[in-house]
Amino acid sequence: MKRLLRRYWDILRRPSVHLSFGFLTIGAFVMGILFWGGFNTIMEATNSEKFCTGCHEMRDNVFAELQNTIHYSNRSGVRAICSDCHVPHEWTAKIARKMAASKEVWGKIFGTIDTREKFEEHRLQLANNEWRRLKANNSLECRNCHQFDSMDFTKQSKRAVDAHSTQLARGEKTCIDCHKGIAHQLPDMAGVK
Amino acid sequence: MRKILTALLLLPCLASAADFYDRMRGNVPLDQTTAPPTIVNPDNSDVRRSRNYAMQPPVVPHKIEGYQLDKNANRCMMCHARTRTQESQAPMISVTHFMDRDGNFLAELSPRRYFCLQCHVPQANLNPLVNNEFKDVDTMLNQAPAPGAAPGRQKK
């Protein structure tokens, strides 16, 4: 093992014989740009609505439900797509979420929720995953658009002011504590606090 | 003779087609589709309205658009359930809602009361299709008896 590492180390240490210094540095620079650009392009492609609704599990269940909600169609024409709520915007967190999503690829291959019945069976678990994530990051994905500092309490209904000016302002509660089931149907809520 | 009879029979039909009017349909004849009215903004003031009679189910003074009410979840009960009222400051569902049809008290909302919208409805500022002449009991009691009204019971 040590000898193997030693051999590769020696190759890396040796100056190149045939390739020019310029080719190596400029080539590495160009390849770097291509790799990084390609990586991020693919990353963005997996964030698109088209990608998310590419499989019937998403298209027929959660996406169909989303279409009736205010986050999909509303008076001002602003739309939140899947990744706006389910994928963090910040790079490190995004990569972490994308790595966690490899579990979802597993689920797709083995058909964990490939029928409506199976999906309904897993609905509570799936919802819990998202509630837990949003609870842990203080509803970060909600706050990417809905910022507390920009809320005008005089434009909110009395109930909304009562909740937002007290428990949300004090940080005792976060968006997801009350706003569950706003973009998708709720699972069986028996036993859910 | 027959022609005159037919004309006479058709006359009321033609007349009624011309001045057809319905509170809900307007002038649109029955065989045509009416343009649907615009969707209204329901009352969202959170001000409780007084009831018109003691047993009236209170109306909903807030928006309930998109509230889920099915086998899985009851959005109304997320604020109006007994255990949620301290946090939400919403009025608790009345004690009758815990009773089954035999009058036994259950631990929580009785299944026969599950569908809130059967009795409790949101309100919108609209012109009623049929004018409502309902008077509540206080108005009736304070009203001076009309002259020539049917004699009361004590006269018998």
Protein architecture, described:
The complex is a heterodimer of chains A (193) and B (156). Chain A has 193 residues and is mainly alpha-helical. Chain A has 11 helices and no strands. In chain A, 60% of the residues lie in helices and 0% in strands. Chain A folds into 2 domains: 22-52; 55-193, no CATH class. Chain A has helices spanning 2-13, 21-45, 49-52, 56-66, 82-86, 91-100, 102-110, 116-136, 140-143, 158-168, 175-178. In chain A, 9% of the residues are buried. Chain B has a domain at 42-128 and 136-141: Flavocytochrome C3, Chain A, domain 2, CATH 1.10.1130. Chain B has helices at 2-18, 77-80, 85-88, 137-142. The longest helix of chain B has 17 residues, at 2-18. The N and C termini of chain B lie far apart (62 Å). Classes of the chains: A mainly alpha (193), B mainly alpha (156). At the A-B interface, helix 10 of A face loops of B.
Features:
heterodimer, A: 193 residues, mainly alpha, 11 helices, 0% strand, B: 156 residues, Flavocytochrome C3, Chain A, domain 2, 4 helices
- Which structural class fits the helix and strand makeup of chain A? mainly alpha
Largest beta sheet of chain A, briefly?
none
Number of domains of chain A: 2
CATH topology name of the domain at 42-128 and 136-141 in chain B: Flavocytochrome C3, Chain A, domain 2
Number of strands of chain B: 0
| Count of helical regions of chain B | 4
Summarize the helices and strands and which ones pair or pack.
The complex is a heterodimer of chains A (193) and B (156).
Chain A: H1 2-13, H2 21-45, H3 49-52, H4 56-66, H5 82-86, H6 91-100, H7 102-110, H8 116-136, H9 140-143, H10 158-168, H11 175-178
Chain B: H1 2-18, H2 77-80, H3 85-88, H4 137-142
